[in-house]
Protein backbone atom coordinates (compact mmCIF):
# COMPACT_ATOMS: atom_id res chain seq x y z
CA UNK A 1 0.00 0.00 0.00
CA UNK A 2 1.42 3.35 -1.02
CA UNK A 3 2.00 6.00 1.65
CA UNK A 4 0.34 9.37 1.12
CA UNK A 5 2.27 12.62 1.66
CA UNK A 6 -0.19 13.58 4.41
CA UNK A 7 0.61 10.42 6.37
CA UNK A 8 4.30 11.30 6.26
CA UNK A 9 3.51 14.85 7.37
CA UNK A 10 1.38 13.56 10.23
CA UNK A 11 4.16 11.28 11.44
CA UNK A 12 6.65 14.12 11.25
CA UNK A 13 4.40 16.44 13.25
CA UNK A 14 3.99 13.77 15.94
CA UNK A 15 7.73 13.18 16.18
CA UNK A 16 8.87 16.81 15.96
CA UNK A 17 8.22 17.89 19.58
CA UNK A 18 10.49 15.16 20.95
CA UNK A 19 13.18 15.87 18.36
CA UNK A 20 13.07 19.61 19.08
CA UNK A 21 13.25 18.85 22.78
CA UNK A 22 16.36 16.78 22.11
CA UNK A 23 17.96 19.79 20.45
CA UNK A 24 17.27 21.88 23.55
CA UNK A 25 18.88 19.18 25.69
CA UNK A 26 21.71 18.72 23.22
CA UNK A 27 22.60 22.42 23.24
CA UNK A 28 23.32 23.59 26.80
CA UNK A 29 22.39 27.27 26.27
CA UNK A 30 18.85 26.61 25.14
CA UNK A 31 18.48 23.83 27.67
CA UNK A 32 19.30 26.09 30.61
CA UNK A 33 17.24 28.99 29.25
CA UNK A 34 14.26 26.65 29.05
CA UNK A 35 14.90 25.22 32.53
CA UNK A 36 14.93 28.72 34.01
CA UNK A 37 11.57 29.56 32.43
CA UNK A 38 13.09 32.23 30.19
CA UNK A 39 11.38 30.96 27.03
CA UNK A 40 8.75 33.57 26.12
CA UNK A 41 5.76 32.24 24.19
CA UNK A 42 3.89 35.56 24.06
CA UNK A 43 2.96 37.08 20.71
CA UNK A 44 4.96 40.20 19.85
CA UNK A 45 3.27 43.26 18.39
CA UNK A 46 6.00 43.84 15.82
CA UNK A 47 8.98 42.24 14.10
CA UNK A 48 11.37 42.81 17.01
CA UNK A 49 11.48 42.67 20.78
CA UNK A 50 12.58 45.50 23.07
CA UNK A 51 14.01 45.13 26.55
CA UNK A 52 15.04 47.67 29.18
CA UNK A 53 18.56 48.05 30.57
CA UNK A 54 18.81 50.09 33.79
CA UNK A 55 22.22 51.80 34.07
CA UNK A 56 21.85 53.40 37.51
CA UNK A 57 19.60 54.02 40.51
CA UNK A 58 16.44 56.14 40.24
CA UNK A 59 17.12 58.61 43.09
CA UNK A 60 19.68 60.47 45.21
CA UNK A 61 20.84 60.42 48.86
CA UNK A 62 20.75 63.39 51.23
CA UNK A 63 22.70 63.43 54.52
CA UNK A 64 20.88 65.00 57.43
CA UNK A 65 23.20 66.99 59.73
CA UNK A 66 21.12 69.79 61.33
CA UNK A 67 17.65 68.55 60.53
CA UNK A 68 16.81 71.51 58.31
CA UNK A 69 18.29 70.12 55.10
CA UNK A 70 16.06 69.88 52.04
CA UNK A 71 15.84 66.28 50.90
CA UNK A 72 16.75 66.04 47.26
CA UNK A 73 14.06 64.28 45.27
CA UNK A 74 13.36 63.79 41.59
CA UNK A 75 13.91 60.80 39.43
CA UNK A 76 16.96 59.86 37.42
CA UNK A 77 16.17 58.55 33.96
CA UNK A 78 18.62 55.67 33.76
CA UNK A 79 16.74 53.21 31.59
CA UNK A 80 17.73 52.51 28.00
CA UNK A 81 16.06 50.23 25.50
CA UNK A 82 17.79 47.46 23.61
CA UNK A 83 16.21 45.38 20.90
CA UNK A 84 16.54 42.00 19.27
CA UNK A 85 15.12 40.40 16.14
CA UNK A 86 14.00 36.82 15.64
CA UNK A 87 15.16 35.61 12.22
CA UNK A 88 12.76 33.46 10.22
CA UNK A 89 14.62 30.43 8.89
CA UNK A 90 12.99 27.74 6.76
CA UNK A 91 14.65 24.41 6.03
CA UNK A 92 12.92 22.88 2.99
CA UNK A 93 13.30 19.35 1.67
CA UNK A 94 11.54 17.40 -1.08
CA UNK A 95 10.28 13.82 -1.05
CA UNK A 96 9.76 12.17 -4.47
CA UNK A 97 6.25 10.91 -5.10
CA UNK A 98 7.84 7.78 -6.52
CA UNK A 99 9.34 6.94 -3.11
CA UNK A 100 5.93 7.31 -1.48
CA UNK A 101 4.24 5.22 -4.15
CA UNK A 102 6.75 2.41 -3.79
CA UNK A 103 6.59 2.39 0.01
CA UNK A 104 4.77 -0.55 1.49
CA UNK A 105 3.68 -0.69 5.11
CA UNK A 106 5.16 0.54 8.37
CA UNK A 107 8.71 -0.57 7.68
CA UNK A 108 8.99 1.51 4.53
CA UNK A 109 7.40 4.48 6.32
CA UNK A 110 10.04 4.21 9.03
CA UNK A 111 12.77 4.18 6.38
CA UNK A 112 11.34 7.27 4.66
CA UNK A 113 11.17 9.13 7.96
CA UNK A 114 14.76 8.09 8.68
CA UNK A 115 16.02 9.21 5.27
CA UNK A 116 14.19 12.52 4.96
CA UNK A 117 12.68 14.29 7.99
CA UNK A 118 15.07 12.96 10.61
CA UNK A 119 18.16 13.81 8.57
CA UNK A 120 16.69 17.19 7.66
CA UNK A 121 16.06 18.16 11.27
CA UNK A 122 19.46 16.90 12.40
CA UNK A 123 21.13 18.92 9.66
CA UNK A 124 19.16 22.03 10.64
CA UNK A 125 20.11 21.61 14.29
CA UNK A 126 23.79 21.30 13.37
CA UNK A 127 23.64 24.51 11.35
CA UNK A 128 22.06 26.45 14.23
CA UNK A 129 24.61 25.11 16.73
CA UNK A 130 27.51 26.06 14.44
CA UNK A 131 26.08 29.54 13.83
CA UNK A 132 25.57 30.16 17.53
CA UNK A 133 29.12 29.10 18.40
CA UNK A 134 31.08 30.71 15.56
CA UNK A 135 28.85 32.79 13.28
CA UNK A 136 30.27 30.95 10.26
CA UNK A 137 27.40 28.60 9.34
CA UNK A 138 26.68 30.30 6.00
CA UNK A 139 24.12 32.56 4.40
CA UNK A 140 21.14 30.30 5.06
CA UNK A 141 21.28 30.61 8.85
CA UNK A 142 23.44 33.71 9.40
CA UNK A 143 20.42 35.55 10.79
CA UNK A 144 20.60 33.54 14.00
CA UNK A 145 22.58 35.08 16.84
CA UNK A 146 26.24 34.20 17.32
CA UNK A 147 28.25 34.42 20.52
CA UNK A 148 31.38 35.20 18.50
CA UNK A 149 32.02 38.94 18.82
CA UNK A 150 34.64 38.96 16.06
CA UNK A 151 31.95 38.50 13.41
CA UNK A 152 28.38 39.58 12.66
CA UNK A 153 24.97 38.02 12.07
CA UNK A 154 22.10 39.42 10.03
CA UNK A 155 18.66 38.80 11.53
CA UNK A 156 16.63 41.41 9.64
CA UNK A 157 18.62 42.83 6.72
CA UNK A 158 21.18 44.75 8.81
CA UNK A 159 24.36 43.20 10.21
CA UNK A 160 24.67 43.00 13.99
CA UNK A 161 27.74 42.28 16.07
CA UNK A 162 28.15 38.96 17.88
CA UNK A 163 27.55 38.99 21.62
CA UNK A 164 31.01 38.51 23.19
CA UNK A 165 33.88 40.87 22.39
CA UNK A 166 37.45 39.75 23.00
CA UNK A 167 38.36 43.05 24.62
CA UNK A 168 38.61 44.37 28.16
CA UNK A 169 35.48 46.15 29.43
CA UNK A 170 37.32 49.48 29.23
CA UNK A 171 38.25 48.88 25.58
CA UNK A 172 34.65 47.94 24.78
CA UNK A 173 33.41 51.23 26.22
CA UNK A 174 35.31 53.57 23.88
CA UNK A 175 33.54 55.32 21.04
CA UNK A 176 33.42 53.50 17.74
CA UNK A 177 32.91 49.99 19.08
CA UNK A 178 30.13 47.95 17.40
CA UNK A 179 26.60 48.13 18.79
CA UNK A 180 25.25 44.94 20.34
CA UNK A 181 21.54 44.23 20.77
CA UNK A 182 20.80 47.82 19.78
CA UNK A 183 22.90 49.38 22.56
CA UNK A 184 26.19 51.26 22.31
CA UNK A 185 28.74 50.25 24.95
CA UNK A 186 30.29 53.74 24.85
CA UNK A 187 27.04 55.44 25.94
CA UNK A 188 25.43 52.62 27.94
CA UNK A 189 27.29 52.12 31.24
CA UNK A 190 27.85 48.45 31.97
CA UNK A 191 26.90 47.20 28.50
CA UNK A 192 30.11 45.16 28.23
CA UNK A 193 31.13 41.55 28.71
CA UNK A 194 33.93 40.53 31.06
CA UNK A 195 37.14 39.33 29.43
CA UNK A 196 40.47 37.69 30.21
CA UNK A 197 43.33 36.53 28.01
CA UNK A 198 46.12 34.02 28.69
CA UNK A 199 48.73 34.48 25.94
CA UNK A 200 51.10 31.87 27.40
CA UNK A 201 48.60 29.03 27.75
CA UNK A 202 46.78 27.10 30.47
CA UNK A 203 49.73 25.98 32.59
CA UNK A 204 52.35 28.68 32.04
CA UNK A 205 49.80 31.51 32.08
CA UNK A 206 47.84 30.45 35.18
CA UNK A 207 44.84 29.72 33.00
CA UNK A 208 42.60 28.50 35.79
CA UNK A 209 43.39 31.66 37.75
CA UNK A 210 42.26 33.83 34.83
CA UNK A 211 39.12 31.71 34.45
CA UNK A 212 38.31 32.32 38.12
CA UNK A 213 39.02 36.02 37.75
CA UNK A 214 36.55 36.41 34.88
CA UNK A 215 34.02 34.12 36.58
CA UNK A 216 33.97 36.27 39.73
CA UNK A 217 33.96 39.50 37.70
CA UNK A 218 30.74 38.27 36.08
CA UNK A 219 29.27 37.25 39.45
CA UNK A 220 29.93 40.66 41.04
CA UNK A 221 27.86 42.57 38.52
CA UNK A 222 24.45 42.04 40.13
CA UNK A 223 23.86 40.16 43.37
CA UNK A 224 20.32 39.04 42.56
CA UNK A 225 20.99 37.05 39.39
CA UNK A 226 23.59 34.60 40.66
CA UNK A 227 26.90 33.52 39.13
CA UNK A 228 27.84 32.12 35.74
CA UNK A 229 26.32 28.66 35.38
CA UNK A 230 27.51 27.56 31.92
CA UNK A 231 30.88 27.44 30.15
CA UNK A 232 31.34 26.54 26.47
CA UNK A 233 34.86 26.03 25.18
CA UNK A 234 36.75 24.67 22.21
CA UNK A 235 38.13 21.15 22.44
CA UNK A 236 41.73 22.10 23.16
CA UNK A 237 40.79 24.51 25.94
CA UNK A 238 38.44 21.92 27.42
CA UNK A 239 41.07 19.17 27.35
CA UNK A 240 43.74 21.48 28.78
CA UNK A 241 41.38 22.26 31.66
CA UNK A 242 40.85 18.53 32.23
CA UNK A 243 44.62 17.96 32.21
CA UNK A 244 45.03 20.64 34.86
CA UNK A 245 42.70 18.63 37.12
CA UNK A 246 44.57 15.34 36.89
CA UNK A 247 45.27 15.16 40.62
CA UNK A 248 41.81 16.34 41.67
CA UNK A 249 38.30 14.90 41.93
CA UNK A 250 36.09 15.64 38.93
CA UNK A 251 32.34 16.11 39.14
CA UNK A 252 30.62 15.31 35.86
CA UNK A 253 27.30 16.75 34.69
CA UNK A 254 25.47 14.75 32.00
CA UNK A 255 23.32 17.08 29.89
CA UNK A 256 21.24 14.19 28.56
CA UNK A 257 19.71 13.22 31.90
CA UNK A 258 16.03 12.58 31.65
CA UNK A 259 16.08 12.10 27.86
CA UNK A 260 15.18 8.54 26.97
CA UNK A 261 15.63 9.14 23.24
CA UNK A 262 19.10 10.64 23.41
CA UNK A 263 22.17 8.40 23.32
CA UNK A 264 24.28 8.55 26.46
CA UNK A 265 27.29 10.84 26.65
CA UNK A 266 26.23 12.91 23.65
CA UNK A 267 27.45 15.85 25.74
CA UNK A 268 29.24 15.66 29.02
CA UNK A 269 30.13 18.59 31.21
CA UNK A 270 32.56 19.02 34.08
CA UNK A 271 32.26 21.41 36.97
CA UNK A 272 34.09 24.72 37.14
CA UNK A 273 33.16 26.30 40.48
CA UNK A 274 29.33 26.45 40.33
CA UNK A 275 29.16 26.23 36.53
CA UNK A 276 28.95 23.31 34.10
CA UNK A 277 31.75 23.37 31.51
CA UNK A 278 30.89 21.79 28.15
CA UNK A 279 32.99 21.10 25.10
CA UNK A 280 31.68 22.92 22.01
CA UNK A 281 33.03 20.96 19.07
CA UNK A 282 31.87 23.58 16.56
CA UNK A 283 34.56 25.99 17.79
CA UNK A 284 37.62 25.11 15.74
CA UNK A 285 40.65 27.07 16.93
CA UNK A 286 42.21 26.90 13.45
CA UNK A 287 39.27 28.83 11.94
CA UNK A 288 39.85 32.46 11.07
CA UNK A 289 37.09 33.46 13.49
CA UNK A 290 39.24 32.22 16.39
CA UNK A 291 42.75 32.75 15.10
CA UNK A 292 43.40 35.50 17.62
CA UNK A 293 41.66 38.52 19.04
CA UNK A 294 39.70 41.46 17.69
CA UNK A 295 41.90 43.58 19.96
CA UNK A 296 45.24 45.01 18.90
CA UNK A 297 47.53 42.61 17.01
CA UNK A 298 49.79 40.61 19.27
CA UNK A 299 47.50 40.63 22.29
CA UNK A 300 46.82 36.92 21.85
CA UNK A 301 48.76 34.07 20.38
CA UNK A 302 47.31 32.54 17.25
CA UNK A 303 44.89 29.66 17.69
CA UNK A 304 44.31 30.67 21.29
CA UNK A 305 40.80 29.21 21.55
CA UNK A 306 37.95 30.63 23.58
CA UNK A 307 35.79 29.76 26.58
CA UNK A 308 32.43 31.51 26.88
CA UNK A 309 31.18 32.14 30.42
CA UNK A 310 27.41 32.45 30.33
CA UNK A 311 24.93 33.39 33.03
CA UNK A 312 21.83 31.80 31.52
CA UNK A 313 19.62 33.58 34.06
CA UNK A 314 20.24 36.73 32.02
CA UNK A 315 19.39 35.12 28.66
CA UNK A 316 15.93 34.95 27.13
CA UNK A 317 14.51 33.14 24.13
CA UNK A 318 11.27 33.78 22.27
CA UNK A 319 9.48 32.58 19.16
CA UNK A 320 7.17 34.29 16.67
CA UNK A 321 3.95 32.91 15.24
CA UNK A 322 0.80 31.42 16.77
CA UNK A 323 -1.09 29.62 14.00
CA UNK A 324 0.37 26.15 13.60
CA UNK A 325 -1.41 25.66 10.29
CA UNK A 326 -0.13 28.81 8.61
CA UNK A 327 2.95 30.70 9.74
CA UNK A 328 3.60 28.05 12.47
CA UNK A 329 4.78 28.76 16.00
CA UNK A 330 8.39 29.04 14.88
CA UNK A 331 9.85 26.36 17.14
CA UNK A 332 11.22 23.95 14.53
CA UNK A 333 7.61 23.53 13.39
CA UNK A 334 6.65 21.41 10.38
CA UNK A 335 4.71 22.73 7.41
CA UNK A 336 3.56 20.84 4.32
CA UNK A 337 3.38 18.83 2.19
CA UNK A 338 3.10 21.03 -0.90
CA UNK A 339 3.09 19.56 -4.37
CA UNK A 340 5.77 21.21 -6.52
CA UNK A 341 4.19 22.20 -9.86
CA UNK A 342 5.31 20.17 -12.88
CA UNK A 343 7.36 17.81 -10.69
CA UNK A 344 6.55 14.60 -8.88
CA UNK A 345 7.87 16.03 -5.60
CA UNK A 346 6.27 16.94 -2.31
CA UNK A 347 7.90 19.72 -0.29
CA UNK A 348 8.09 19.86 3.49
CA UNK A 349 9.37 22.78 5.55
CA UNK A 350 10.84 23.09 9.04
CA UNK A 351 10.28 26.64 10.33
CA UNK A 352 12.39 28.31 13.00
CA UNK A 353 11.42 31.85 14.02
CA UNK A 354 13.38 32.26 17.25
CA UNK A 355 15.33 35.03 18.94
CA UNK A 356 17.88 34.81 21.77
CA UNK A 357 19.30 37.74 23.73
CA UNK A 358 20.71 38.82 27.09
CA UNK A 359 19.54 41.66 29.30
CA UNK A 360 22.71 41.74 31.44
CA UNK A 361 25.72 41.52 29.15
CA UNK A 362 28.10 42.45 31.97
CA UNK A 363 27.21 39.26 33.88
CA UNK A 364 28.73 37.20 31.04
CA UNK A 365 32.28 36.91 29.78
CA UNK A 366 34.92 34.99 27.86
CA UNK A 367 38.52 33.86 28.20
CA UNK A 368 40.94 33.32 25.31
CA UNK A 369 44.33 31.69 24.98
CA UNK A 370 43.63 28.45 26.84
CA UNK A 371 43.91 26.22 23.77
CA UNK A 372 47.64 26.42 24.38
CA UNK A 373 48.86 23.93 27.03
Would you give an account of this structure?
25% of the residues lie in helices and 23% in strands. The chain is an alpha+beta fold and 373 residues long. The protein has one domain (5-55, 75-368). The strands form four sheets. Strands 7-16-12-8-11-10-9 form a seven-stranded mixed β-sheet, with helices on both faces. A hairpin with a 5-residue loop joins strand 14 and strand 15. The chain is globular.
Q: Strand arrangement, largest sheet?
A: 7-16-12-8-11-10-9
Helix percent band: 10-25%
Q: Biggest β-sheet: count, sense, barrel? A: 7 strands, mixed
Summarize model confidence as the mean pLDDT: 77
Give the total of beta strands: 16
What class, by secondary structure content?
A: alpha+beta
**Low-confidence parts:** 258-266, 291-303
| Count of distinct structural domains | 1
Distance between the termini: 61 Å
How do the strands and helices of this protein lay out in sequence?
Blueprint: H1 5-26, H2 28-35, E1 39-40, E2 48-54, E3 79-85, E4 88-96, H3 97-102, H4 105-115, H5 117-134, E5 152-153, E6 160-161, H6 169-172, E7 194-197, H7 207-219, E8 230-233, H8 235-244, E9 252-254, E10 268-272, E11 275-279, E12 306-310, E13 315-319, E14 331-339, E15 345-358, E16 365-368
Helix pairs in contact: 1-2, 1-5, 4-5
Characteristic terms for this protein:
seven-stranded mixed sheet; five-stranded mixed sheet; alpha+beta; single chain; 373 residues
In short:
The protein is built from 8 helices and 16 strands. The protein has helices spanning about 5-25, 30-35, 95-100, 105-115, 115-135, 170, 205-220, 235-245; strands at about 40, 50-55, 80-85, 90-95, 150-155, 160, 195, 230-235, 250-255, 270, 275-280, 305-310, 315-320, 330-340, 345-360, 365-370.
Amino acid sequence: MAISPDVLASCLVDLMPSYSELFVQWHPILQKVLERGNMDRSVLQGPFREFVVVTGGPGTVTQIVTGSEVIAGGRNQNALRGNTFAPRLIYAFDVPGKDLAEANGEMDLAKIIKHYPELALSDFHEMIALQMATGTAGTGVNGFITLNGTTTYNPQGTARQGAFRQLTPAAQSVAGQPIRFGLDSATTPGWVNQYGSVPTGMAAGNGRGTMRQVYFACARQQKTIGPVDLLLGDELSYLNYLDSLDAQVRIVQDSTKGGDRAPKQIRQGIKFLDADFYLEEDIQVADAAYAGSDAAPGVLNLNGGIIYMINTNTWHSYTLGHDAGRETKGDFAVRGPFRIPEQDLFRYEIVLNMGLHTTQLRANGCVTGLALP
